[in-house]
Protein 1
Amino acid sequence: MANTKDGFIPFEPLNFSEDETRQRAKDFYEFMDRRRSLRVFSDKPVPKEVIKNLIRTASTAPSGAHQQPWTFCAISSADIKSKIREAAEKEEYENYHGRMSDRWLKDLEPFGTNHIKPFLEIAPWLIVVMKRSYEIVDGEKKNNYYATESVGLATGFLLAAIHNAGLVALTHTPSPMNFLAKVLNRSENEKPFLLIPVGYAADDAEVPKLQRKGLKEVAVFH
């Protein structure tokens, strides 16, 4: 075995056969293709340990210089969820009644959405993903590298982990989202990136009949 450089450890590859690799890639695609965003949640409880492991999975995502510039605020408190809903609906009312363009509103019609967001109280958990653009180290500001890209990657991991656990989620973006930092009393270096309700689907849940773009529409092979 070759000597390992200081600060490094040996990498342990998974070593699947080519046939296993092909099958696992196909199976995972088919599994993830079943993932849908939901707005109709059950109030069935989700154990805190499950949420902890979802966040642990999200934190395995790559990040610029391994700075891990994210904070995941997991909320089950009915009081805090109520405050978030009240503030979110206030912003969303403004969006649907003047901020959004006619084109934007037209594009939203297939989803049947409006400014009323009951799922923010019904879902057993809300996960607010915070982007940390910088840190304060010894009283000085230290910028994080590629913070937006890094947090986007971590959020993708989080959504995959939620689906893998048999749960559902919604990537909710009540814009502007600064009220979340105030409700949660977060520090100035944290900015809300996404608000994600997490839980089980309601028994009568429905989703829009949509079709994802095919491979030829999203990929180019050179």
Protein 2
Amino acid sequence: MRTAVAILFLAFQVAMIVYARFDPGRYFCWAPHDSQNEYHIRVSIDDVELDTTETTRRYRIPAEGIDPRAIEHVIRLVRQYERSYGSDENAVVDIDYRTNGSAVKHWRWPEQ
């Protein structure tokens, strides 16, 4: 019985590592903090742009900063907020980010 539990436990770990290789959030990777992501979040509600303090309060993360995890963590926080609490506010969110010093990329809500 112990052997079966140990095999199931190891199989689960291997499955999560394989899954993480294809998931942008990289939750179960060996090195989930393997990148530096500089980002800047801009939010407009009814054509009025929120300042950095309001944006920080809205998402409970800095409106601009560096995140050592995959940028998908920041995007998922914003997406989750806009799908739930902010769903009736018609917000337009722009995130500009740079991973490990590469070219600047862009993400926008609402998603196309």
